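Review form for a predicted model. The reviewer records the input and the model, then writes brief findings.
Reviewer: anonymous (R2)
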Amino acid sequence: MVTHVRAEAQGDERGALLSFLEEQRGGIRRAVLGLTEEQAASRPSASELSLSGLVKHVAEVEQSWVARAKGEPPAVKRDESNWHECFRLTEGETLAQQLAYWEQVAAETEAYFRSVPSLDDTFALPNDPWFPPDERVSLRWLALHLIRETARHAGHADIIRESLDGRTAFELVALEQTAGRENAG
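Model under review:
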């Protein structure tokens, strides 16, 4: 555990889930601290993943899942023809733009989870071949899925960043705290 997630107010399950999701988002955001566009787009490990591509991917995934829960289409429709674009920046996209978009998505996610009547409410999974037919999942499942998805990629981000310049998650937490103190002063 690199950062501590504060305990929720008694009975605030939504707050607890959203806090753990935000903690995992923070791990990915910290992984890009102080990097140039070129560094963030580089692929220093055996994987095809880059840090900027991970930021883009987690923002798109979070937005698309919340849209599904609302019964809306995702902002970006991905299929076999363009799936590869979800893990890398394309012409004209920047890391700063992706981070700003993700911040907006995160705010919309929080507002949605705070507004739904119950985490027991369900929505239908899409009719994609990798989902069981006619399956419904709860909003609690969705929150846990987003935490799992983001945490998985936060781990990838740790490895990529350490491969780039040797900085570990603990060093990046300290760098973030130092930057926060300097901006507050």
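Findings: Strands lie at 122-124, 136-138.
Further findings: The chain has a mean pLDDT of 92.
Recommendation: see findings above.
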